[in-house]
């Protein structure tokens, strides 16, 4: 067991709630605190993104510490795009030393999507190998290079999966590989196509993966029909069914945000009923103020004491 | 028909425009011509199936090279016509001659004249 | 083969600006096959350079010469008799050939006319595609004959990432997702069970990071 709040709650069988906080493009700690204050008491843990979409932001590590000071149990997101195995392991040790309890291992968006498309990517190891690295450091007390550690990083290990990406047939198999590598909790890409997600969960259950790894279903409220359309056409790996866009279009523009929140709440309620789904990850992109409202309406508040 | 076309147009015969190489075109300009055009068969009627289509692609490519060098790419063109179209042959010759006249001498020649003078 | 692109003309023109006599040196190997720096491309570049310089009243003398291979000591000596007649060499070989020429003629300025890009194949006449990055330790037996290092934008050993959609890579809709190709091929071969094997962190030592790699076959050496 680690000191992780979500690990403890999952162990007790609580349906957990996580959300995320994207650090600011700047050195303003207050911006992190402001976002954090919107999530206080609403979630069991908060993800802190690592230069998401390859745009330079305050480091995940530093932002995690700011949130920790506020009483959060942050989830350190770590991508393989920008650092090699030396830097990654060094940051893992540092994070654990400063009381970070959770890590989410990701490959990372390609740099061509970000603000430094001319940068050189690293990808010395991939997300699967990063999971294995953290597990090796924690459980075997050594670096992947073989050197023994003095003090193991006691981290609850997570990963992400996109159930909607291709080839669909190997998506659960891929999760199986992650679980074997050491993944204990999983946050999914935002779900709009419940039917396809249901099929994926079926494959996950067939392999018994839901028992070895806590699946947290990802949701993102849609602000408007325009955003839904954009997500469908321009965000890689996103599956937004047409009827959802139609539903948003069916209400006047000024009411679309409200409708988007309603859809999100309904989605959470339906996801809760799927066997094997053990929590929800609410990603309200630059709309953090809505997380409390969504969680409340979905019957997910108040949260148990951390 | 006894159609007229400018006497300064020199004809170089090739068995098929597919024989026209990029280097052939460039060398002509290097030697100082003010313009050149390739007259191929109608598209779809090449005796060697695709000779004229390949020629067009090469002409297009050579035009980009001329532009790199600083020679107006319009000085080089590709036309398609059949052996039976005498009037079109003359019309193309006159059209091209007119275009070259309006462009003036090749920048290469202009430069030479300027530096000799 | 090694594939390259000719550098933009403007860039080459700028490089040769100080010189009145250059040796334009092609190579008859890979760079000829990918139509970037063989005899014909040497001819085209020479013609372009001569015209561009003549246009500015700065005539340039260019000797065109194409070696069998610019990367081999057996051929590099062929230019020895006349290289000193020229102020600089513009090489139309791959990066290896350009350097080899420079190495052999230390007092001569050797300029690159080619941007060397990748190890690849000819998909059709006029179309080349990358297949290998020379990482030094082949894993094609594990990945259905499709290389994740060269063909996945993130070089994932345990892909595909979440951006694979309809067989294409999220980075470029015209690029096949390498891991889709791997999964398809493993299926065709009846080896999909291999997909479940975790591939551990790669040892990059045989790759590019240890300075130039050298290969020696003692039995073939003459000394």
Q: How do the helices and strands line up, and which of them pair or pack?
A:
The complex is a heterotrimer of chains A (306), B (117) and C (223).
Chain A: H1 5-11, E1 16-21, H2 29-39, E2 45-48, H3 60-69, E3 74-79, H4 85-97, E4 102-106, H5 127-140, E5 156-161, H6 171-181, E6 185-190, H7 194-206, H8 209-212, E7 214-219, H9 225-234, H10 242-249, H11 256-272, E8 277-282, H12 291-297
Helix pairs in contact in A: 4-5, 6-7, 9-10, 10-11, 11-12
Chain B: H1 22-30, E1 36-40, H2 51-69, E2 76-80, H3 86-103, H4 107-116
Chain C: E1 2-6, H1 9-15, E2 21-27, H2 30-33, H3 39-55, E3 61-67, H4 73-76, H5 80-83, E4 88-91, H6 95-104, E5 109-112, E6 114-124, E7 127-132, H7 148-151, H8 178-188
Parallel strand pairs in C: 2-3, 2-4, 4-5
Antiparallel strand pairs in C: 1-6, 6-7
Write a short abstract of this structure.
The complex is a heterotrimer of chains A (306), B (117) and C (223). With 306 residues, chain A is of the alpha/beta class. Chain A contains twelve helices and eight strands.
Describe the structure.
The complex is a heterotrimer of chains A (306), B (117) and C (223). Chain A is of the alpha/beta class and 306 residues long. Chain A has a single domain, classed as TIM Barrel (Alpha-Beta Barrel). Helix content of chain A is 41%, strand content 15%. In chain A, strands 1-2-3-4-5-6-7-8 form an eight-stranded parallel beta barrel, surrounded by seven helices. Chain B has helices spanning 22-30, 51-69, 86-103, 107-116; strands at 36-40, 76-80. The model of chain B has no long low-confidence stretch (mean pLDDT 93). Chain C folds into two domains: 2-118, Rossmann fold (3-Layer(aba) Sandwich), CATH 3.40.50; 133-209, no CATH class. Chain C has helices at residues 9-15, 30-33, 39-55, 73-76, 80-83, 95-104, 148-151, 178-188, and strands at 2-6, 21-27, 61-67, 88-91, 109-112, 114-124, 127-132. In chain C, the strands form two sheets. Chain C has a four-stranded parallel β-sheet with strand order 3-2-4-5, with helices on both faces. The two termini of chain C are 30 Å apart.
